[in-house]
Amino acid sequence: MILNGxxxxxxxxxxxxxxxxxxxxISMPMPEVVALIVAISFAAGLNTYATVGTLGLLGHYQxxxxxxxxxxxxxxxxxxxxxxxxxxxxxADKIPAFDLIxxxxxxxxxxxxxxxxxxxATAALTPAEQLxxxxxxxxxxxxxxxxxxxxxxxxxxxPEPFSNGALSLTEDAMAIGLTWLATRHPYVAAGIVxxxxxxxxxxxxxxxRSLKALFxxxxxxxxxxxxxxxx
Length: 231
Prior knowledge:
The protein has nine helices and no strands. The chain has helices spanning 2-18, 30-46, 48-60, 76-92, 98-105, 107-121, 127-155, 162-184, 186-230. It is globular, with a radius of gyration of 20 Å.
């Protein structure tokens, strides 16, 4: 099942890469492009398919002027692949325990796609600047993806089934809403991402401390049980 998941993700990655040709020029002011990259990279770290699909639809219906390097997202092929995989993820991401496997596999999807979009959006910059933008896009997506995975790891042990679904729905809404906001008010969206990155750091610290406390408690219980059995 995991191998099949990797095969699907590889096919989606190849389809998206194939329809993202290198284009020159840019149709947005550069500061807005930078803010857009920050926002959509974070959104892609939460849900790549929602981000790509939303950008594609908004660009296709000319609701916004995408950077020229992202114009290929408006292709119905890209939008179709993103829509199908969004539906698959919508259900797979809400199954306790399996969602951790799904998110682990998507480490190889969310981060590269975010980096690729950052690369294409800055096609008019110098190679050095484009490389910096690409790395930044990948790192921002990694932070969002890491925070999402850490939150899932904390929620999954919960005995009731609603926390996982509610968290997943929130992430879906955030990805779509943040992508839309980035196209209308990129600076506001970038500011929200900066706050989100701080929140991610706090989540990761909390989860790491919780895991350490959990393992420490388990070790103490084992140490208490072992002498009792020996006696």
